[in-house]
Every structure is written in structure tokens, then in C-alpha cells.
Write a structure and sequence with these properties.
Blueprint: E1 4-8, E2 29-30, E3 33-34, H1 35-45, E4 50-55, H2 60-65, H3 70-76, H4 86-94, E5 96-101, H5 108-114, H6 116-119, E6 124-127, E7 131-134, H7 141-152, E8 155-161, E9 171-179, E10 182-190, E11 201-209, H8 213-218, H9 230-240, E12 243-247, E13 251-254, H10 258-273
Parallel strand pairs: 1-4, 1-6, 4-5, 8-12
Antiparallel strand pairs: 2-3, 6-11, 7-13, 8-11, 9-10, 9-11, 10-12
Bound molecules: 1-O-phosphono-alpha-D-glucopyranose (G1P).
Amino acid sequence: MIKKCLFPAAGYGTRFLPVTKAMPKEMLPILTKPLIQYGVEEAVEAGMNTMAIITGRGKRAIEDHFDISYELEHQIKDTSKEPLLTEIRSLIKKCTFTYTRQIEMKGLGDAILKGNALIGDEPFAVVLADDLCINQEGAGVLEQMVKLYEKYKCSIVAIMEVPEDQTYKYGVIDGKEIEEGVYMISNMVEKPEPKEAPSNLAIIGRYILTPDIFDVIKNTKLGKNGELQITDALMSLAKNGMVLAYKFKGQRFDCGSVDGYVEATNYLYDLEKSGS
Ligand code: G1P
């Protein structure tokens, strides 16, 4: 069973400056909930109960969010506002939150490696909170991936088709479709220019990783932009075993960009207004 979920959350969020100057990008609200809370809810729905968060300087608000604010509790007790805290209270009760800091920004692979101390020697999920994933039709993306993990017991990345001129924003995979929407990866490239992209199947911010990834990351050379890339580490795993890519059901919003952020806000606002 997968019980732990890692949230790399040390990045600066420069695309959202100046708002991210003194506030973590993971705390940007979509309606009344911060982005990272959507990720934690998705992990809980998938059966996880331990959230391992990789933070950095200026990220204290994340820890405070997943904690009780006694002053606030006291102020709103027995008022009409109290129900607004029900959801987050119950989330805090269901989970344990653990934290460690990434001291230098050396890439997603490095952030995940820092999580080794919190994860230990077991399979785990990774959520990049600025990719907001919603499946109105049923199970969330992590839950879908956990089901697949139970069948294949190997590392899995979530993918989606992107327009060919957008490949430079993502890790891009190539592979053989072994069942509908499930690919056995034969190649992976981090942020290729369109002419170098092996396909238009792009990795989005949901992963299930087996713990052997930690040793592989340690032996991975710096890649794109001089950073330690999880895509390169996963390519080594794929060469020596099996890594799957899964075309998830649902919608993904790139809330690391202003356009995607506004789109997600409008989408969830319309959902809430229509009462679903
Ligand atoms: C990271 C990964 C990339 C992946 C993307 C998904 O890039 O390195 O492979 O496609 O997340 O959001 P980032 O967006 O952090 O630069």
C-alpha cells in the first residue's frame, strides 16, 4: 500500500512575482483553498496518510496552514464562520505532516532525493501542487495511479497529450502502449525542443516512485539547465527495469502559469455555482 506522498514545495514561484515574494506559491488560493490543499486532498482520497513536504526559506505558511490556529479557533467558535474550517480540520486529523528543507534549488530530482529521509524504503507518490488535477467523472489521478501500481508494482508517471510546440515545458516520453492509456517507457527527455521530442506525451506533476529511485538519483548526472532531473533518473530506471506512463482520466490545470491559474479558478467557480 502507498501511504506517503511527497510534495516538492521549495521553488520560488518566479512566474507569480510579486505575489510570491513573501508568500509560497503553493499557498496561492483557488477560490478559498490553497493549491497544496487540493494536492493533499487528492492524496488522502488515494489512501495516503503521511504528507512529506519539501520546503525552503519563506515557506512557513505551509506548515501553519496544516496546523491548528488556536487564536482563530477561539475567535470563530460558535459563529456562522466556524463551518469554513471543517474541511481543513478534518484533513489535519487524517494526516501526519512531515517537513524537510531543500537548502539549494538544484532541480526536481534533488528535491525528491531530499525526501528520502521522510519517505524511507517504501513506494511513494509525488505531487507537484501547481499541477491541479480534477476528475469530475470519478477517482482522482493519484487514486487511478495507485490502482495501476497495485497491478504492475513499478514507478509510474502521469502523462497527457500536449500540442507539439509545447514540449519544451515538460518531460516527454516515448513507449509502447501495453494496455489502453498505459505505456511502457522506452525513452524520456526533459523539456525537449519540438524537433527533438520523442512524442507529444508530456509528464505532468503526478508520480508513483519505487524507493530504488533514491540511489538512482544519487548516481544521475546534472541534466537540463544544470539541474538534477527526475526525468533522467527515471530513464535509468526504465533502462534497467520497467517504468510506466499513464494517460490519466480528468483535467489538469497548469497553475504555475497565470493562464492556467485563472482557468482553474473559473472552472472550480463554475462547478461550485452549479452545485456539483
Ligand atoms: C517538472 C518536471 C517535468 C514535468 C513537469 C510537470 O518541470 O521536471 O518533467 O513535465 O514538472 O509539471 P517543472 O514544471 O517543475 O519545470
